[in-house]
Give the backbone structure.
Amino acid sequence: AFEYNLVKWNGSDWVRAFPNGLATNAYNVINKMLVYQNELFLLTSNNRTLVYDGQSWDSTRFDYTVGGSTFTSNFTDAVLFNGAFYGCGSFLSVVGGNYVFSNFGKWDGTQLSTLPSPYETINRVGTDGTYLYAIAKDSTGEVYLGRFDGSNWVNYAHLQSPGLGVIPGYELYDYNRIVSYNGELYIGGRFNQIDGNSIQSFAKLSGAPTNLTPLAPTNLQIAVFKTETDYVQLTWTDNSNNETGFIIQRSVANSSSYSNLDTVAANVTTFDDYAIASFTDYYYKVIAFNTSGNSVASNEVTVSIGSVGLTENALEPSVFPNPTTGLLQVKLQSSPKELNLKDLQGRVLAHFHAPSSSLNLDLTSFENGLYLLECVWESNRVSNVRISKQN
């Protein structure tokens, strides 16, 4: 019965481990148990996580209440890695007052943090003590053994392409467990093949793969800069350590007919496009590449360009002094509908009311560094003035 889905050995017999009223079919089958910081974590088949501290059970450890509704963050699989509790599943955390969802998370004993991943879904996780490994599927349906070093991901081994290598009736990527044994990785589950090889249900990774395409760049962002020559600047997150470079793709006036605009070298995460025209819509994507092929494309960004050149430059704000020790004078020829102070990662730090004249900004409470004063005009064109704060 479901009431006995957890038992313990008392020295002479097996006895029920759950207290009365807790162990019902609400928790169904227990798929995995881990001990972390003297607590027992139970991962159940109906996507609930139970935590036992030796005295009481906690079934709401990873729940959040948003707008009167309760959201449950669930570990479908987990592993101890680098002294922390990492897992895959469906997670929710609060970052800067905003609720962030992810399929990869970390519990450090106090806080559950959502972590970015380049994958659409992560199914299972394991570790060899040096790296964390995950069975992961990208947005095209390709399934990989992903490797995580604590900061970055790499597609470590290809497992299957969409529709291949599975036993009919089972999940697309039913690779159930990853374990390390004698310094080698093993995968068990229900499958017919791995990477085109006829291997059934139990496989060993033989040597480090060398023919892997890079992971897709993420978090592509865009800004327009008004200088002597107007240009569009792209920034993105590099998720790979095996790319040769990045392909910048652009589409004019629509989001369907992309062409290659330029390439940049490995580890470069910015690109400036000076080849822009007035009153034109541009769409951009970025793709990582190496000798084995291309990654999936990044997210798409778009921008609507107003007039390019001196006519619109005359409307841009001027700032003085720059660098500033804190007090900044801003002169405006026209009133933007938004005036924001942002960091170089594009995060908004402050909003300002912008009259159609001069105004003074007090930046003394901000740390020394580089910032962007962003103006959003009525035409939805965005321009940025770079500001240096120095004491």
